[in-house]
Amino acid sequence: MGTLIYSTIMSLDGYIADEDGNFDWAAPDEEVHTFVNELERPVGTYLFGRRMYETMVYWETAQDLAGEPDCIRDFAEMWRAADKVVYSTTVESASSARTRIERNFDPEAVRQLKAQADRSLSVGGPGLATHAFEAGLVDECHVFVTPVVVGGGTRSLPDHVRCGLELLDEHRFDSGVVFLHYRVA
């Protein structure tokens, strides 16, 4: 059975993007990116909403990564090798390989996907994650807290969802980023 992980990079005040939609402050440095790669390596399937998919599809089309650090090329390879499910009523066709479009988030279908998976699954984006939390599907959270306060924007964690968390691991980076790994209790 696969584990469903919600992974997020957020500001100290809990946002993934500021009020203008900017998230440049969240770009991981090489140390953090290398750490993220090790967390993402077991992921076999990504579940995305439209906006997160449109952001992440860059990794499919990034062609000239020769001058980039190893961690960037490594992540691109992992992302291309994984299956992707995009939940959207507006995306007509996939812009990446190994991708299927679903019109609605069906909790029972995701439960079956988890039951059949031999690798982890990752839910990307707070909107889609809210549906997964509400349905009790999220098993773990990987939270990267960035040392910045943005004052508003897109919240990282869902409103009106309550669940207990058990801290499994934590890690501090030279940049001031803190990683928190929780199991949903």
User: Remind me, CATH topology?
Assistant: Dihydrofolate Reductase, subunit A
Biggest sheet, open or closed, and with what strands and sense?
8 strands, mixed
* SSE order: EEHEHHHEEHEHEEEE
User: How many strand elements?
Assistant: 10
Q: What would CATH call the class?
A: Alpha Beta
CATH superfamily: Dihydrofolate Reductase, subunit A
Distance between the termini: 17 Å
Shape descriptor reads: globular
Q: Decide which structural class fits the backbone.
A: alpha/beta
Q: How much strand?
A: 25-35%
- The overall number of domains is 1
Instruction: Please name the CATH architecture.
Output: 3-Layer(aba) Sandwich
Major β-sheet strand ordering: 5-4-3-6-1-7-10-9
Radius of gyration: 16 Å
**Mean pLDDT score, rounded?**
95
Given as residue ranges, the uncertain stretches (5+ residues, pLDDT < 50) are none
How much helix, percentage-wise, in residues? Answer: 25-40%
> Total helix count?
6
